Fold these 2 entries.
Entry 1:
Amino acid sequence: MDRETVVRRVMTHRPMFVGFILSIVRDYHLAEDVYQETMVRAIEHSDTFENETHLLAWVRKVARNESIELLRRKNREPVMLNAEVLDLVESEWSRMTPMSSQDMAQALEHCLKQLTQRSRRLIEMRYAQSLTGHEIARVTDRKPQSVYQTLHRVYRKLNDCIQRQTASRGAAS
Amino acid sequence: MTQAAEHFDDLAALLAGYEQGNLSPAELAALNDRLVHDVEARRWFNEYFQLTAAIRSRYQVDATGSIPFESAVDAAPTVAPRGMTWLKYAAAAAVILLAAVGWLIQRPVSSSESSSPTGRIAIATLLHSRNVTWGSDPLTEGMPIADRTIAIREGRADLMIGAGTMMSLIGDTEVRLDGPMHVTMIRGRAVFDCPPSMKGFSVGLPGVEVMDLGTRFAVAQSEVDGTEVHVLKGHVRVSLTGGAMNGRQIELAANQAVHLTADRSTATDIALNVHAFDSERGDEVLISDTRGDRVLRYDLNGQYIGRFITSESNPPMRRPGGIVMGPDGRVYLAESDAGGRILCFDREGRYESTYCAGSPGVTPDTLVFGPDGALYFTDAFNSKQVYRVQRSAAHVFIANRYAPDAPGRHFGVPRGMCFDDRGRLLVADRESGDVLAFAGPEAAKPGRLLELVVDGLSRPQSLLWRDDKLYATQTGGPGSGLWSVYPTPAARAHPPVALNFVVEAQRLDDGSTLVVDTSARLVFRVLADGEIIRFGADEKLIGPTHVLLMPTENPLTEKE
């Protein structure tokens, strides 16, 4: 495959790859680093990819190894899923429908607006103010378990909304 | 994705703990076990991290407020105007991607660092375009733009220049991007919103330089009519560099505006015209130009904004007719042909779904949402019945012979329709001049004839229930227009205006009325004081029929 095709194909799957890496390293900035590094390595190996399936499988494998290696280098305590689970999770990623960053950003923005004020506030505390669930519980005078539960339902709602949005756009195009 | 929101509640604490790295060994084992044995949980695990990555990315952009331009551009934090934020995120994502593509492709393999990849410096990016017909090479949203000329024929394009100046081009407009701190306005209308970090940003015009002193301002430029500068916020300095006033400087503060003649011989204070320039989104009016196979959009002043959909849209739309906004904030539009479909669009005119597939022999006309949330429509000219849409199909709600005990009674041209505040469905028959009330969907016998509400109207075409009053458009002769017909005696709802064949009308909050005159091929806004504003002066209508007022916000959005 030529370099441009490699870049574009990997870019098309960017939200998915960053999510995959994040599920291992659990630090967004580290996930971005691993993604960039993986991308550069994919470019360097572009001649060796036979097709997109080959490319994407290769990227997932490299991203996984890079993530684990990075955690080791950073001396992070490896609270990690076991290898068998990682294999299963990795193969599940290959079945997901790719979504471009732009589509994802637009859909997310739309879906955030559909949330109640209260739900949005929770998301903002978690991600704009980087509060942990326990910290949010303290601020809002709720039990941590209740905060996690509510956040989790908000995620489900957002995710469903994003899937609907992207499906309807896909149908339209 | 088919699982209910509660299905993975038991995973909430495990996922949160895993994400934060504070699971106990027992909890980690429980998570491992769950993921091994539950494929749906594995799928959700992946979607969870894809989603949280996207949310983090979104708030990261929000925190830095910056979009990565080339290094030559000052990367100061940006201040986006209200209502533009989501564009920033999408654009930021797109710009990051595009910049990365260029960088990565040209990055020398195995070298430690690369040189500047693109040669030309990106000084702006297109954040959003709405109904734009490009007069220059088309731009795509998120595309970094180097120094060049940009022209649009219609619609609106929002660009971010340098490290934060927002520029909205409105309608037929052409500008040249000279650099991150300067643009040249060739013609048209544009609004500039400059954050404090961009103080000194300037707009060049023939013989004039408009410099921002920390503000929001608008410029209109015409070779014939000269230049208008309107200051919506803050201050600007207008420096004359040619003509009889060469060397003169005019300082303008908020709510001030000036007109400069084309030959730069005179400068006159004029009234600020916020509406003509306001780049914030306001209420809009959609007009079904049925014979033109398109739906056009206007602001409330009748300023043409652009096309909502056309026959070239995807999917193509034939003879758009009835139009209504649903309780979900989407726009529903009927094709006024036999077998016509009812399509659903978002507020930007993007197709979302086919709401009703259409039936042979049925021509949807007026659309109304009922108190039950279902969509109803009249078929005035074909089957002459009233329908309700259920599960994407039209079902007869009121038959043509609507009174079983009086078989002779039937609809002639059932055109207008609305629900009153009691949930009754009112239908206007243009042929008989009657308005009839039928039991609504929540009554014991939905669709049953209840009473004759008004008779003797002159060819009533549309109905409107507002503020406990029933309005009807009447057509033909000097009485053409919108009339209040119930419960008080009939009275014209606007000052007398010479109208021909009025199909639909809307009452606006300020007491003015929008009137669609199909045979005159015009739409008017009749103000409470009798002044008439013509809609569509910039874009000739071919056969307007229906009109929709699209409010700024969907009031139901916040409800969950």
Note: Chain B is about 15% helix and 40% strand.
Entry 2:
Amino acid sequence: MSQLFSKANRQVFATPLGLNHPVLVQVLGICSALAVTAKLEPAIVMGLSVTIITSFSNVAISLLRKTIPMRIRIIVQLVVVAALVTIVSLVLKAFAYDVSVQLSVYIGLIITNCILMGRLEAFAMMNGPWESFLDGIGNGIGYAYILVIIGGVRELFGAGTLLDHQIIPTSLYDAGYVNNGMMTMPAMAMILLGCVIWAQRALTKDEQK
Amino acid sequence: MIKKILDKMRPSFQDGGKLKAFRSVFEGMETFLLVPNTTSKTGVSIHDAIDSKRIMSFVVIALLPALFFGMYNIGYWNAVASGHLADATFFGMFFYGLAVMLPKIVVSYAVGLGIEFIVAQWKHEEIQEGYLVTGLLIPLIVPVGCPLWMLAVAVAFSVIFAKEIYGGTGMNIFNPALVARAFLFFAYPSKMSGDSVWVNLDPVLGLGFQASDAYTMATPLGHAAAGHPVTTDFSHMISGLMPGSIGETSVIAIAIGAAILLWTKIASWRTMSSVFIGGAVTAFLFNVSGMESGVAAMPWYHHLVLGGFCFGAVFMATDPVTSSRTASGQYVYGFLIGVLAIVIRVLNPGYPEGMMLAILFMNMFAPLIDYCVVQRNISRRARRAKISQKN
């Protein structure tokens, strides 16, 4: 057990959350981060789906890594990811139909998410299954919490709600407050993401050198 | 006299003084009021007596006619809306407009300069004077019904995201005043366009009249976009007695400002004239093409005097920071702004006014235009050098 959570393994899990963050530092997966974050709920579901798919595809590829011929490895990786994406998409359709309608093509497009292919190529192809699993979870959670931050801010200021509960009191609306329509546009998500990156770089300025 | 007061205050702001934290505020005020008397100690340098703060003051002066007319226009429409036009006096309407306008200007300057002061203090830089003009432009390009808190949010957004992150005054790609307007336009469309934001209905400080809440008035361009023929007199379009953003309605007031800017050589006549040429040509072509749209049916001279076209051409397109710098680049830049503004007006019914988007779009291309002009010049000279070598 102690082996499973050794220092090196904890490192594998923690770096994608901070110093080697897939969205903030490597700037991967931006497209879906902008597209699905207009509301908090689809952002959470999307983050969860990506976490599950990243971790399990990492495990699968890591198990197969010695048998995959180098020349066709991308195709093999795609098949694994596509299978997992299909499973997740069907599960969502069965148990959370509304959200899956909101997410529309973006669940299917997880297959093209750069974070996935990046982790498979850079990590799962040369590490064991357990490390790959931790790496996938770490990257997925790193991606997910950015989505939650941006989705939360956008829903709060764009619609006045969080998870469809009214947060901004109606008395404020009577006093002349108006929801910020800009927040519901992807352009504002880009600016918010820029702010999060700004904050993260400012906080970890010393460690990055 | 001002100099004496400032000299007395100086020690407490310098290093070790008790008000050290406000050094940049002090320096900003000092150089705003007086031409700085520091000169370079080494080498030869020739300076014009007019530095950028003096340039900014001239632009502010050029904006005053439009501002004063805007105030009068606010009062005029309040009187029309409440049906009291007959008993409204000229000064009554003007002071009503002043009372409506003053809070907007104060909010714009307080928020914008506040952020600039904080940034300057934080980076240990001098206060930059760029906000002087922007701060007056922003209240002039919004409808009178825009609430103060929205103005404050938009100002903060534009100063931080259109200016400070690019490095402050002189480094910005986009015109900050237009970014503020674009932010308002996309974030709060209900308060930036439509029928009910162009007239102030309530009395302010005991001035003006109470009008019915149901009174609505669309701008002539909004009218045209909705498919109605424009009913405003051409003389009113010139004088500016029509609903619109506060400073943009009067062609005469803007022309006075344009004359000041051109006479002091702050604005480029190339940019300004080519905007009008581009707009006129495009509007004329659309008119001749016989398109089935209220906006396309407008004659070209209506296009030029309605909406923000004049104001944008004179005060926004000519902004020396965000426009092209090369002489022939300025023709291209201005012409394309005029063309795009009319194209957006005619072809996109969602945006009755295209000037803002056209200028922001061309701001983005200004460096590219300059690059092409400079490269062409370089290659032409290289060719000439080759020919002379051969002979």
Note: Residues 266-391 of chain B form one domain.
